[in-house]
Every structure is written in C-alpha cells, then in structure tokens.
What we know:
Layout: H1 2-25, H2 48-59, H3 73-86, H4 88-93, E1 95-99, E2 102-107, E3 117-122, E4 144-146, E5 149-151, H5 159-174, E6 183-188, H6 196-207, E7 212-223, E8 233-240, E9 242-251, E10 255-256, H7 265-277, H8 290-296, H9 303-310, H10 312-322, H11 326-332, E11 335-343, E12 349-350, E13 353-362, H12 368-378, E14 385-389, H13 405-417, E15 423-428, E16 441-452, H14 454-458, E17 466-468, H15 469-487
Parallel strand pairs: 3-6, 3-7, 7-16, 8-15
Antiparallel strand pairs: 1-2, 2-6, 4-5, 5-17, 7-8, 9-13, 9-14, 10-12, 11-13
Helix pairs in contact: 1-9, 2-5, 2-15, 5-15, 13-15
Amino acid sequence: MVRLILAGVAIVLAALAGLVGYRASTFTATPPPAAVQIPELSSYAIDGEAAADRLAEAIRFRTVTIVDDDGEPAEFERFHAWMQARYPAFHAAAKRELIGRSLLYEWRGSDPGLPPLLLLAHQDVVPAPEDTRAAWNLDPFAGIVRDGAVWGRGAIDDKGSLVGLLEAAEYLAASGASPKRTILFAFGHDEEFGGEGATAIAATLAQQQRRAWFVLDEGMAAIDTHPLTGKPASLIGIAEKGFATLRVRAVAQPGHSSMPPPETAVSSLALAVTRIHSMPIERGLEGGPALPMMRALSPDLPLLNRVAISNEWLFSPLLRQRMANPVAQALLGTTVAPTMIDGGVRPNVLPAEAIAMINFRIHQRDTAESLMARARTAVSGLDGITLEWAAPPNEASPISSTTSSSYALIAALSRASLPDAPVAPGLVVGGTDARHYSEVAENVYRFQPLLLSTEDMAGIHGVNEHISVANFERMIRFYIGLMQAGAM
C-alpha cells in the first residue's frame, strides 16, 4: 500500500512538474502586429543643439500650475507668442484655436475620410517650492543647456514633448510636406491640476463629432533598467489608473481631555483609517496590463521569474513575496494611501470632529463604487463615522489594444529609436491628460521616446529636472517619423 501511495505521489509530482515546465516554456509574447514601414529616423537633418536651446527658452516661461490659480495668464500668453515666433512654418500650415488657455492645432490632411492623428502635450509645469531651491544646481526656470543636457522645470514633464512636437512639425512644414491624414495637436494648460483644459478640448472634438485614429501623450518611456529583467525596456502605456479621494469624517462628544469617553473623534478616525488602509485589495497579473507586459518581456526574464509568473496559480505566495515593493504593488492592483488628517485645535480639548483623506489609485479590475462598498464594510460598527468622495472619482481608463496598427506604429518607431530596449505595454500609475480623450479616439497611448535612468526620473516633479540633448533629439526624430509614417 505504501508503495502504491508513493508511486501515486510520484506520478502527481511528475505531472505537476511537466505542467509547470510546459507553461513556462510556452509563456511568450503574443504575436506582434503586422510589420509597419517607417522612415529611416537617422536621415533627418536635425540640429540637436539648436533645438535644445529652444527648449531652454521654453522652460523660462513660468507656466506654473498652482492649487488656487492655474498660472499667471500673461505668462501663458507670452509662451503662446513665443511658439508662433519660433515655429512660423508650422503656424502657417496649421489652424490654431485657443480654448481657454489651452491650444488646439489642426494641420489639415488631404483625405478627410482618414481619422486624424491626435498628439498631446501640456504647457503647465509644477512649482519648484522655495524650500527645495537649495537642492537645485541652478535656477529651475533659468533654462540652461549644460553638460549635454537641458536643465529646468518641465524639461521632461512636459515641455520636452511639447517643444519636440513643434520641432518635428516645423521640420516637416518647412520642407514643404503636407499630410494626407489630418494631424491634431492638443496642448492643455492645466494637466498638473485636473486637466480642465484637456476636458474642454475633448468636448470640442466630441461636439464636432471627430474621432481620432489614436492619441499619443506622455506617461511612460524607456527605462534603462527594468526591475524584472535588469535590462532596458520601452514601456508604452496602454492604460492609466483612476483617481479618487475618500473623505473620512468622525464625530464624537466634545469636551475636556481630562475626562475622555472610551472613544474620541480622533481615536475613532484613527481606527477607521487603519481599517480602510488594510482592507483586502485584489492584486494579481490578470485584469490589467501587467500580464501582457510580462509576456512581452518574457525572453529577458530570468528562468525562475518566468516559471513563477507563468504558473501564478501555483506560485502566487512566492510572487507576492517577490513583488512586495511599492512599484509592483501599484502595478498589480488598486493602492490605498492615507494622505491628510485634521482634528482638534488644542492638546487638552476633545474635538467634536476629525477628518482624514485617503487617496485611491484605481486599478482596472476595481471601480469607485466597489471600493466605496468595501470601505463602508471595513468601518461598519464604528459609531460616528461617515464616508464620502471628496470629489467625483475618475475611474480607471479603458485598456487600449496592443494588436492595433497604431500600437504597431509606435512600437516600430520605438525599436528604431531604442534598438536595445524591447517594447512592452505598461500601466501608468499616475494621471495624464490622455484619460480625457478615451471617448474621442480609437486607442489612447502614453509614451515618450526617451531612455531614462533612475536619476532622470527623480527629477520629474523633483529637483534638478533635466533631459539630455541626445534624448531630446531622439524624441524629435521619433515625432517626425510618427507624423511621416502615420499621416504623410
């Protein structure tokens, strides 16, 4: 009997090992889309240094998004005038429309039956707070080219993209090129604070019943070291997470702290926040861009990672342990982050009310409604607790196709620009203007053709933001190729 049991166990283990090995060996990228013909990007006669000087000029305009005021109007007006002066051929070829402080350009194509190409960037930048100025190597709005890079606020986020698009359009317009497919350029003015400009532009396009072939915006790029492969990878954002902030309010009997009741507004609030923060959130490879990204990078994945990922049903505890870092957690599911708390004005007075804010970045498998239901369950039984969204939530965006002709075009141009970086889809964990255009485009993608290091990425919204001249020139060539292959 023992021999029969051992034999049975051996057969089961052998079968299991065979299944695990088979799934690992067949865990490969989905077949790529049809090949796309693209121009030779190195053939363009680009003066990278001169273009870098113009980007430096653009950085000197303090088009800053501030919480209570979306920037000094005159500064945006001066920036708009600068664009017209610096890029005359493009402005002669394209129709310009001012929507608030946002800009919509239409470079009309000869074939009105082709859906337009819609290219995004935003004019505004985040502030450089005074208490960070000492950490900057130079004035964040000086706009200086030094040590092979353009330095200043917005160099990457997002004046680099905006000026790169203008450089590319000027290059083509000045050469006499004329598009067959209409190209739209949408430059929002307040992406860093809500994106009302992008919302207005998208509403204008919807009212005109215009639907784009695809949208391309910022949001992801190539990174020099992917955390799973240890090698470069170009990540094209095919979706972005939603955004919602939960207001948690606790009320209790006010009084003197010398005679406290069993629970105060502050203690009840603390318990509610703890429960919501630790409520169960589903995390996994399925239901978002994570699994397609893993498949695309499978040739470069270490064997053990490939075995574990392709057999998540068996190795999920191991995967959870290996992917316990904040980056992986953000990729695999909704994140819950208590960010603000307020209650009480004196140390010896029991407040009648205490309030906390909890920020959710919503994964595609969740909705604001389902998260609110879970939060209410988490705080059930706590007296005096109420929950409400601080503002209408933004749901997670739809997931765009990785088999479309538009994705194939972006991927082909990325491979031509960065041949050592395999292309993979990705999830944008922050927010971009792109989310406002889902209803007026077939697909929405988020990608800057830049190869970024950890140091480069730290400068975005941080200190010493900069873009190398080589990266900026690469970006311009990519955009010229995109317009030429996609619209000419």
